[in-house]
């Protein structure tokens, strides 16, 4: 809390003039004023001493006003020293800060899955997709082999019925088409069942 002034040049000059001129100053007042203008210390003037000086100057008939005296002076604000912190309190605060930071981290990262391969899904989804692609590839390969086998079997078996090659090829294409359509029917029914299970 402020309780004194740092005396400016004008105030110090007035005090020096007063000390040289006035012989009727009380001894304690004179010593207090000398302490303010001494070259060794900081020129601090308490509020009480300033009141005494102002009233003395008014009684002696000086034409100087208080605001003129305080021109260039500043209020002295002593430095506030903070008390040392309690070590137990510091450790508790550090624990609380660490806990809050951990909770914040968990809240931010709760939607993140470390299993994710990319933004399209997790590794498990990728595995299912590979299995699905493998099943599709096997199905297509099975379809092609079945149709080709039906064509070859019909072509070789029809040599006993037909002597012309055109008739043998035509009968083989017809049988391969029927087998292919039957295979497609079974494939569509199977896919329909799998899609129904997924839903």
UniProtKB/TrEMBL annotation:
Sorted UniProt keywords: Endoplasmic reticulum, Membrane, Transmembrane, Transmembrane helix
InterPro entries noted in UniProt: ATPase_Vma12 (IPR021013)
Topology within the bilayer: Multi-pass membrane protein
Gene Ontology cellular-component terms listed: endoplasmic reticulum membrane
Gene Ontology BP terms: vacuolar proton-transporting V-type ATPase complex assembly
Family annotation (Pfam families): Vma12
Subcellular location: Endoplasmic reticulum membrane
Highest taxon listed in the record's lineage: Eukaryota
Membrane-spanning segments: 135-157, 169-188
Protein name: Transmembrane protein 199
Native species: Geotrypetes seraphini (Gaboon caecilian)
């Amino acid at each position: 809390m402020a309780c004194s002034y740092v005396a400016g040049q004008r105030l110090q000059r007035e005090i020096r003039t007063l000390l040289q001129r006035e012989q009727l100053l009380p001894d304690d007042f004179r010593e207090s004023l000398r302490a303010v203008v001494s070259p060794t210390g900081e020129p601090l003037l308490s509020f009480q001493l300033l009141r005494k000086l102002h009233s003395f100057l008014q009684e002696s008939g000086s034409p100087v006003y208080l605001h003129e005296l305080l021109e260039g002076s500043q209020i002295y604000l002593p430095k506030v020293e903070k008390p040392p912190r309690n070590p137990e309190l510091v450790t508790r605060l550090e624990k609380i800060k660490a806990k809050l930071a951990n909770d914040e981290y968990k809240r931010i990262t709760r939607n993140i899955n470390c299993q994710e391969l990319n933004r399209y899904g997790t590794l498990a989804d990728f595995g299912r997709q590979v299995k699905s692609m493998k099943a599709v590839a096997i199905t297509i390969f099975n379809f092609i082999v079945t149709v080709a086998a039906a064509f070859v079997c019909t072509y070789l078996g029809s040599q006993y019925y037909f002597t012309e090659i055109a008739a043998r090829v035509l009968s083989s294409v017809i049988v391969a088409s029927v087998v292919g359509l039957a295979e497609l029917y079974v494939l569509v029914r199977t896919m329909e069942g799998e899609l129904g299970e997924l839903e």
